[in-house]
Amino acid sequence: MTKYKLDIALNKVSEFIKSLGSVEEISRRKEYDLFFSLSDEGTLFLSGDESARYRESLKFLLDTVGDGIISQKAIENLYQRAILTALDIQERRKYKPFAHRLEAALEELRKSLTVSPASFNVYYPVYGLASDGLPIKVGNVMFCTFDDKHLEQFVKLLSEYEGTEDEKSKRIDFIDIIKQSEIIGKPVSLIEMKAIDVEAAKISALKELALTLDIINFFSDLIPYQKGHIFLPGDNERLKINVPVISQGPKPNFIFGWEIVGPLMPFSLQQLLDTNKKRNLGFSKITDLLTKKRNGLEDRLVSAIQWAGKATVEGKKEEAFLLYAISLESLVLLDNEKEELTYRLRTRVAHLLGKDLENRKKISAKVRDLYEIRSKIVHSGWFQVTDADLSLMRLYSKGCILHILNDEPFSSMNSINSLVEWFNERILS
Question: Which of the ends of the chain has fewer CB neighbours closer than 10 A, N or C?
Fold first, then answer.
């Protein structure tokens, strides 16, 4: 965000505030489309036209400032405070002319939006993770067991902070809540984030964690005899459910059985690291990419692995099939190539995985058939994906990813155009 762009956004904010009617009219309004309030600044009621202009100016401000360092919620709260401060609905500053109040409100808004970010340590629960080998860092995420040492760090940090009696009481309550929570003794993720507000830190941390889990889960089924994966609270939890089944007829038959859904066992990051060392899966390489600025091809690799990682743990065959298809497309197709999607995709997959002309022809035909299934799912809601179809789509998706990730000449390429040129050379030859 440049000063110039922020100036333009604040000018739009200023124009909106100036466009509002008198305070008396706004405060007495009985019909309104939108309202917001602050306990110390009163309530503002906006008509339909005013609310539309409010949303327009807010969107412009969000687009200008919204870089992940400050949350959308915080930006909107600051914007609303600027409006209410300038209008002075409760007449707390009536001794100041409107122009002075507006100038002061805009300057305060500018300061709040450009304040230096602070460091936040976000501890987010993860499920399905085995505790062996922890702590282990993957990319920007540290996986560890939340134990007494972490609690002691919290106590020490908070005890060193001077504050009011009310703040001290809140700190004690904070520690008590943690002690009573389910997080104690359980695997968690620790992500350090730079942010202006807590909400932004949490949102950015969760985004980074979700990406990391997708990448871990991509590799999860490449480990022999490994049937687990890691997931966020509320996702893919292992459950024991009952399934009553009854047959109707002259002699009804009935079955009442239990069924396990979700991951079968905790996932071991240590086992993944050991397998990666033995088989050179490329896990270390891809996790290194998470910590640095990536080129175009590296970005596509990470994106493709993320989609395929989601597919790996997806319980519905049709959705997993589509996710693997998206993974393939995001890796080997440019944005302007979607019209010739099927032809280009099957040709490129064939050249990536085929050992000779005959083998490439077979792969090309199979990818074509798979994409006919994809089209039926997307366009007509067709739900008849077989285990064999899903297995083959998984094979091609993960095979292409691992090939480009680990093998030459792809591992030395630094742009998607280099990959496209390689495809073009093979096709022309």
Answer: C
Scan for tokens 């709040």, then name that residue. Answer: 112
Structure token digits, residue 350: 């064939």
Structure tokens at 123: 């501890």
Distance of CA 334 to the CA centre of its chain: 23
Please confirm whether the linkage preceding 244 is cis (ω < 30° from 0). no
User: CA quadruple 340, 344, 345, 346: dihedral positive or negative?
Assistant: positive
The residues, ordered by sequence, that sit 6+ positions from 422 with a Cβ below 8 Å of its Cβ are 409, 410, 413
- The alpha-carbon radius of gyration of the chain (Å, integer) is 28
Instruction: Quote the Cα angle for 331-384-365, to 5°.
Output: 50
Distance CA 188, CA 87 (A): 46
Question: What tens digit of pLDDT does each residue of 139-176 get?
Answer: 999 999 988 888 888 777 777 777 777 776 777 777 77
What is the b/e burial string over 376-387, where b = at least 16 CB atoms within 10 angstroms of the residue's CB?
Answer: ebeeeeeeebee
User: Is residue 410 within 8 Å of residue 403, measured between CB atoms?
Assistant: yes
pLDDT tens profile 21-66 = 666 666 666 677 888 888 888 888 888 888 899 999 999 999 998 7
Contact (CB, 8 A) for 138 and 219: no
Q: Which of 420, 285, 423, 297 is nearest to 354 (CA)?
A: 423
329, 334, 335, 341: CA torsion to nearest 10 = -50
CA distance linking residue 156 with residue 159, whole number of Å:
5
Return d(Cα 269, Cα 243) in angstroms, integer: 33
Q: DSSP letter at 413?
A: -
In this predicted structure, which of 129-138, 166-175, 249-258, 383-392 has the lowest mean pLDDT?
249-258
Count of all residues that appear for the chain in the document: 429
| Burial class of residue 273, CB neighbours in 10 A (0-12, 13-18, 19+) | middle
What are the contacts of 198-204 at 24+ separation with CB within 8 A? Answer: 198/120, 199/71, 199/73, 199/74, 200/68, 200/69, 200/70, 200/71, 200/74, 201/120, 201/122, 202/122, 203/68, 203/71, 204/68
Helix, strand, or coil (residue 96)? coil
| Alpha-carbon gap, residue 428 to 290, rounded angstroms | 35
Residue type, 34: L
CA–CA dist 157, 169 (Å, integer): 15
